[in-house]
Amino acid sequence: MRRAWLLGVLFFSTATFYLGVSILLKEPGYMDACYYFSVAEAMAEGKGLVEPFLWNYLDSPASIPHPAFTYWMPLPSFLAWPFLKLPGAGYLAARLPFVILASLLPILSYRVAEVLQEKVSEKDKSIPILAALLTLFSGFYVVYWPSTDNFAPFALAGALCLFLWGRIIEESSIPMAFLAGAAAGFAHLARADGFLLLLPLAFFLITPQKRRLALVSTIAYFLVMGPWLIRNVMVLGLPLPVSGAKTVFLTHYDDLFSYEKELSWRSYLAWGLGAIIVSKLRAGWLNLQTIIAVFLMVFLTPPFLTGLRRLYRSPFLKPFILYAVTLFLVMTFVFTYPGPRGSFFHSGGALLPFTAAVSALGLSTINRAWARKRGVNSEDLWRLNFVGAVFLAFIVSSFALYRATTSGQWDSGGEVYRSVEAWLRQSSSLEATVMVVDPPCFYYHTKRTSIAIPNGDEEIVLRVARRYSASFLLLEPDHPRPLSRLYSEPYSYPGLEPVAFFGRAILFRIKP
How would DSSP label each residue in 430-478? Predict the structure, then answer.
């Protein structure tokens, strides 16, 4: 009874905290969140699964609007959609399911810590509480959990899947196998790399007794993913879109927004072996920094390593370790540019309940060793370390929230877009299509058709503008590098006429 009461308090405290974050961050603030919200809004308006904008050219759509989710997976929009059907619903209502899912993560961390305690005969009931609080105050993730993005749904589905895989290794269970497969399906429905969560199935294929569990998990996975695969075959002609796979061949992150540029093995190998090796090393270094600074908030690194050293032989942790190592390798050596630029951060959310639990147990181990060495009372020292760890996690989380609310990224980021929309309406350009760096967020603020500025020079811009009938180009300080001269010398290119200035942003009319 006391445990149920504690978990209930934990859930409602977390939900209250993330609702507060949602109130502070009133707008989506970045491309992914704008994308999922805008598609969910289109679904709520009866328009179907369509993108009323174009943010990359990997699949080269014929027109706008065009089928949604040819790069990202759909679960976040599916979650937001029913809440947008409510009367007067807006962005705050769309975030409610994400707040609920994020509020379950500390409870899962609590449960992971309980299981790990059993492995090493730890009985201190404050260790699972510490794991839960380290997940609640999860540093840089706190501003993203309530957003209309795949952070919360993927983290919960992925971590639950890893938890269930670990339990099944130790205790064969048909219901657990079904739930694990379903959780893997939902994780894949949230992120394209979610299929990596199926790798622990290899543990069950080794022994004939557990192959039935693998079959049950696979069936459950396809029950979740099957309808989406069928939809893709009907709309795209393939079970899964292949445009996202082209990012394997990027030689620069901005090539994600290139137009008609070859992205293949041939172009990638032509880049040169030296450049390829350097890019992998750099990606590995950046991903390692993400592990230390983001997943472990720096100060949890020693406790995590201590706890992992003590627990790594536990069969329960095998799926977690396999997924963590595979994810790092894939985001370093396969998706070398998307990985360090956000993909590793997104997918790493599924690791947090485990890193928090292992860190909590590791801190307890360090605490006892330090108490013995210094001859102090272990319980008194643990209270100090417990409070100190929670305090540091709260400070890192507060810094992340402060940076988001003061950088202008979230609530003031749309001011330029709304000003541009007002100017276009005054100039009678009611149906004009605009080229911008962030089409999903431009659409969110203006409800105007927009397309991405291609990563190319002025000639490429004009070619894309003619194909998709764009009439205006909005250049912001964050713009493609080939257009730097145009940004610094706005009157330098005859086909693009500057017509208005919005702070540091320049609006160009694209001449026919």
Answer: TT-EEEES-HHHHHHHH---EEEPPSS-HHHHHHHHHHHTEEEEEE-SS
Closest CA to 363 of 292, 291, 304: 304
Bridge partners (DSSP) listed for residue 66: 51
- Quote the pLDDT of residue 408: 63
Angstrom distance (rounded) from CA 137 to CA 311: 24
Alpha carbon distance 288, 340 (integer Å): 9
pTM over 0.70: yes
Determine the 3-state secondary structure of 507 from DSSP: strand
As a whole number of angstroms, the distance between CA 158 and CA 468 comes to: 39
Residue 179 and residue 164 in contact, taking contact as beta carbons nearer than 8 Å: yes
Q: Which helix (H) or strand (E) holds 218?
A: helix 208-236
Angle at 129 (CA atoms; ends 297, 323), nearest 5 degrees: 55
CB-based contacts of 422, cutoff 8 Å, min separation 6: none
Gap between the Cα atoms of 136 and 17, Å rounded: 9
Burial of 59 (0-12, 13-18, 19+ CB in 10 A): middle
What local confidence, expressed as pLDDT, does residue 413 receive? 72
Nearest residue to 354 via CA among 322, 320, 386: 320
List Cβ neighbours of 442 (8 Å cut-off, separation of 6 or more). Answer: 53, 417, 434, 436, 448, 450, 474
**Other Cβ atoms closer than 10 A to 128:** 29
Q: Strand, helix or coil at 239?
A: coil
**Top-ranked range on mean pLDDT: pick from 10-14, 208-212, 404-408:** 10-14
Q: What is the chain's mean pLDDT, rounded?
A: 94
> Could you tell me if 354 and 304 are in contact, meaning their C-beta atoms sit under 8 angstroms apart?
no
CA distance 101 to 145: 9
Q: Are strands 505-510 and 470-475 parallel, antiparallel or unpaired?
A: antiparallel
